[in-house]
Specification:
The chain has 205 residues and is an alpha/beta fold. It is built from eight helices and six strands, in the order βαβαβαββαβαααα. The strands form two sheets. It has a four-stranded parallel β-sheet with strand order 3-2-1-6, sandwiched between helices. It has a two-stranded antiparallel ribbon with strand order 4-5.
Length: 205
Amino acid sequence: MKLLLHCCCAPCTVQCAVSFIEEGTRPDLYWYNPNIHPYTEYKARRDALVQYAAYTELECRTDDEYGLRRFIGETGHAESGGAGGGKYPARCAVCYRMRLERTAARAAEWGYESFGTTLLISPYQNHGLVRATAEEYAKKYSVPFLYRDFRPRFREGRSGARNMGLYMQKYCGCIYSEEERYLGGRPAPYSEAAPRPALSQAEKA
């Protein structure tokens, strides 16, 4: 199966890619994350994914758009709302839509049979909303969304990324989450069927 895998970062990609390879599918990695700020952080995460792709000999395609102004323009109005039952800021829903619509559109344009996203490995994301958003764009662009719950592999993926010497980020990505990192107020991890794995002090670093 020809699969385009949207990658939010290298650490989250490690076990998602391994999982698909174990199923017999070598995904093509796709970078499109205009939500990541500032530029130094954006570049570090993008370069880490390119490094991982070279290490694993997986193809990596990029839409290299540093989208600070666009992101703020599209999410600023959402800051007073909530997504996922109020557990996350409404900006998260806007962020998912920006990235997953572009992924679905590219998958259709480039002739892929399906697309997926590494956002589904993180216990800190609104898993149900990510899935629903991806499925919405799968219908819009007539390309199947390949859903997997990767959350049980989260810690293993982080460990693997460290062993490869990949850059390990310390906040979700957007300028708002960077502010929350320093000033507090980070939302609690979203929880559905799968419990959030406990992180060691080293993993939190």
